[in-house]
Design brief:
With about 325 residues, the chain is an all-alpha fold. The protein is about 80% helix and about 0% strand. It is built from 13 helices and no strands. Helix 3 (about 75-85) crosses helix 4 and helix 9 (about 225-240) packs antiparallel against helix 10. The radius of gyration is 25 Å and the shape is globular.
Length: about 325
């Protein structure tokens, strides 16, 4: 039995890596499928488009399964409420082709894959099935897709935060050249690219529906959860209630954002070493635990074979997350 430990361990690691790659492939496949569906009426198809590779066929089949599975899940009210938390991940262009329930379908699908891998490895190793490890594997797979979405959302927020100063500068220059608010927003939408351009497209569409400027930017803040967007919304709300010169307001916002960005860049360079130490301190326990598990897979078995072990393991996890939070608070610099 000991001679099978290393092959089974390698099989488990390969299966986990494959599952993670599958999550990324599913995410990219769903994105590409919606883009293709949106533009297929305006594009020319080659005569050999119907011949797909084996991998493309599998990914297309998974995409179709996810779509149909999400329609089945729509029958459950509590899942519809839970799916509303994923509305922030759907861009304005994807509203017609994408439903938040698809995220729940992907999470359940990935969780089922991890559960299946756990059952196979447990049976090959001990000829028995562990309910605790199976449940843990399913939960890891279920929340893994959340981590992928969170990383994508954080990347989008960083891009918007970096480009927001440019957007305010373009709007301010547009006001100085005699353009109105709608024309200034259209200029930003056309001049910039990336997430900030998509957000200003949403702002433009909201204003065409008759919403006021302060309400529009409040909705912008609710989407991106940036303090700079909240500052713009507060300034425009005050401007709407008290009156004033919008050019001067945007000049003040531009100067404030520019000074804040310069200070943020200086702090980033000054705290680069501390952030590196923080990341090392966070990753080091995980690497150390992984190394012990590879050397001796049975070392952590007592944690999962008794109720006291599960309590101790839960307490260790709580201490670890508290440890991460404390270090982040120490290194956090608010402006």
């Amino acid at each position: 039995m000991k001679s099978m430990t290393l092959p089974i361990l390698l099989l488990l690691v390969a299966a986990l890596v494959g599952a993670i790659l599958l999550v990324v492939l599913i995410y990219n496949a769903l994105q590409n499928a919606r883009l293709e569906k949106r533009f297929e009426d305006f594009s020319m198809h080659a005569s050999n488009d119907e011949f797909l590779s084996f991998l493309d066929t599998i990914i297309d089949g998974i995409s179709i399964f996810i779509t149909k599975f999400s329609h089945i899940l729509m029958k459950f009210g509590f899942l519809r409420k839970y799916a509303n938390h994923y509305l922030k991940y759907i861009s304005y262009e994807e509203k017609e082709d994408k439903e938040p329930m698809e995220y729940i379908a992907v999470k359940l699908f990935v969780g089922a894959i991890f559960l299946f891998l756990s059952l196979i490895t447990s049976f090959l190793k001990t000829k028995t099935l562990s309910p605790v490890s199976s449940l843990l594997s399913f939960l890891i797979g279920f929340f893994l897709y959340d981590f992928v979405l969170w990383m994508q959302f954080q990347k989008k927020r960083r891009n918007i935060e970096n480009d927001l100063v440019k957007a305010i500068m373009i709007m301010n220059n547009s006001f100085k050249s005699g353009k109105n608010i709608m024309q200034a927003i259209v200029t930003v939408k056309n001049e910039l690219d990336g997430p900030i351009s998509l957000e200003f497209k949403k702002i433009y569409m909201d204003m065409t529906y008759g919403l006021s400027l302060d309400v529009v930017f409040n909705r912008f803040y609710e989407r991106v959860k940036l303090e700079d967007a909240k500052y713009i919304a507060s300034s425009l709300t005050l401007l709407d209630k008290t009156g004033g010169n919008i050019i001067k307001v945007f000049e003040t916002i531009e100067k404030s954002f520019y000074s804040k960005k310069r200070m943020r860049d200086e702090l980033k360079s000054m705290t680069a070493a501390s952030v590196f130490v923080y990341r090392v301190l966070v990753v080091l326990p995980l690497l150390f635990t992984t190394f012990i598990f590879i050397v001796n897979p049975n070392y952590f078995a007592p944690f999962f074979n008794s109720f006291i072990g599960l309590v101790v393991f839960s307490f260790i996890l709580i201490l670890y997350f508290c440890y991460i939070g404390i270090i982040r608070k120490i290194l956090e610099v608010k402006m």
